[in-house]
């Protein structure tokens, strides 16, 4: 009886071993990739990292910094909002400067009264007041007028308006935060960011790509350049229109929030443009792969 049990267990062990070997030894089918690996659409091309930005005639996005320091009292725009030139963007608490403007206006009013009284007296009787005293009053009026004008001009700096027609790409502060001409402090990057970032209307966007210095000699002439960008993580490919080359080779900056981080490599910026019609999945600041080839 005992031998039968041992014999049965041995047979079961052999069967279990065969089944296990079949299960674990079977070749598993690899899953299909979510998207095709990026590849060049041209027979001959060079590769460059790119970043999508606002389509500006010169430069990139518009960074808004205040010219004065203080606490944000109001923010009148939101991200994605289309704005026109002269629209109020945000205001800084201005009670002290408003009081200074009132004092300057009062001083100007007092100086004007003094000058007008002396001028009236001089016109009635030139011997009633010296010409020197009249000139001093006039100089004092001009000085207080200039001080009042300067105080009012400084007061306007506490209300920041848009310099162009465009769209709000980013708002990096909130009501109650302290800002300065350096911008607003970012506790994550431990650096200073612009208060707002503006861009042109996004019927079209630009792509700024950085060509490694060792590949610059392989760039086609400007009139024969064509390019295509690939959105990372997708199968989307978008043809690009050549705009210009920024003719200054500079140290490469890592395309991240750490803008001060540099590597031992120099690059040439090349700017392209594309229409956003039919493309709802592209945004300024997005990193892309760019292939540049000859026509």
TrEMBL record:
Q: Which PANTHER family match?
A: MULTIDRUG RESISTANCE PROTEIN MDTA (PTHR30469)
Span-the-membrane segments of this chain are none
Species this protein is from = Pseudomonas panipatensis
Please list the GO terms describing molecular function: efflux transmembrane transporter activity
By its UniProt entry, which InterPro entries does this protein fall under?
MdtA-like_BSH (IPR058625)
| Cellular component, GO annotation | efflux pump complex
Query: Which residues does the UniProt record annotate as the domain Multidrug resistance protein MdtA-like barrel-sandwich hybrid?
Result: 62-180
The protein's name: HlyD family secretion protein
Tell me any Pfam family this protein matches: BSH_RND
């Amino acid at each position: 009886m005992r031998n039968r049990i041992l014999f049965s267990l041995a047979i079961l062990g052999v069967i279990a071993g065969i089944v296990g070997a079949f299960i674990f030894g079977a070749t598993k089918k690899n899953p299909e990739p979510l998207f095709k690996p990026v590849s060049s659409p041209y027979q001959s091309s060079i590769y460059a990292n790119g970043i999508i930005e606002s389509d500006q005639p010169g430069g990139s996005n518009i960074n808004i910094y205040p010219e004065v320091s203080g606490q944000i009292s109001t923010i009148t725009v939101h991200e994605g909002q289309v704005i026109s030139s002269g629209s109020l963007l945000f205001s800084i608490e201005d009670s002290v400067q408003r009081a200074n403007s009132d004092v300057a206006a009062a001083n100007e009013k007092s100086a004007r009264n003094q000058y007008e009284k002396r001028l009236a007296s001089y016109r009635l009787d030139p011997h009633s007041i010296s010409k020197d005293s009249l000139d001093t009053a006039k100089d004092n009026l001009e000085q207080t007028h200039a001080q009042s004008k300067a105080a009012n001009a400084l007061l306007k700096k506490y209300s920041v308006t848009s310099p162009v027609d465009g769209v709000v790409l980013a708002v990096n502060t909130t009501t109650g935060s302290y800002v300065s001409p350096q911008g607003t402090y970012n506790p994550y990057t431990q650096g200073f960011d612009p208060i707002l970032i503006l861009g042109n209307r996004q019927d079209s966007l630009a792509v700024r790509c950085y060509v490694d210095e060792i590949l610059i000699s392989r760039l086609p002439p400007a009139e024969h350049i064509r390019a295509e960008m690939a959105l990372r993580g997708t199968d989307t490919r978008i043809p690009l229109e050549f705009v210009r080359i920024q003719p200054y080779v500079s140290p490469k900056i890592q395309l991240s929030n750490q803008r001060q981080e540099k590597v031992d490599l120099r690059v040439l910026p090349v700017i392209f443009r594309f229409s956003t019609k039919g493309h709802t999945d592209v945004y300024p600041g997005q990193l892309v792969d760019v292939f540049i080839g000859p026509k």
